[in-house]
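Email to the structure team, subject: MarR family transcriptional regulator model.

Hi all, the expression group asked for a predicted structure before they design truncation constructs. Nothing fancy, just the tokens so they can compare against earlier work. One-line instruction: predict MarR family transcriptional regulator, return tokens.
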Amino acid sequence: MVLVLALYCVSLSTISDVKDPEARLANDLALAVVRLARQLRTRRAESPVSLTQFSALATLAKEGAMTPGALALRERVRPPSMTRVIASLAEQGLVARSAHPVDGRQIVVSASPAGITLVEAERKASQEWLKAQLLRLDPDERQTLVTATDLMSAMVLEGA
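Reply from the structure team: attached below.
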């Protein structure tokens, strides 16, 4: 989703936008996100899951069990799409489904031990490259990225 938004923003760039500081920042940020995502994707090797599936699995590994509807909201996809993602992950043994503790009509989905192992392995590969890049920065530059990361995360979570 972020990649699609970033590509859309980059495609909107025109010569006249360069004079508008906010438009330039939006385009530069979108392009930087696309390029960073591309670099991180190359570290995924031959993953058994798509980026969409990985994102859902990583959310479950980090935040714990939740209903498919809650996961769809968190991942900003439609419930039918999340149903397909969950089905694929379940077929691979990466998630487990169980009865909802309160509402018997619903299920909750959680990352299985195999799913958590996959998330950790993929994160480690990406983190090794990214950590090496971060170590090349001085402490002030790293702090700037901490602040920027917090702001971008908030923007995405708020749907801004």
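The beta strands are 95-99, 107-111. The helical segments are 2-11, 21-42, 51-63, 68-75, 79-91, 113-135, 139-158. Ping us if the truncation boundaries need rechecking.
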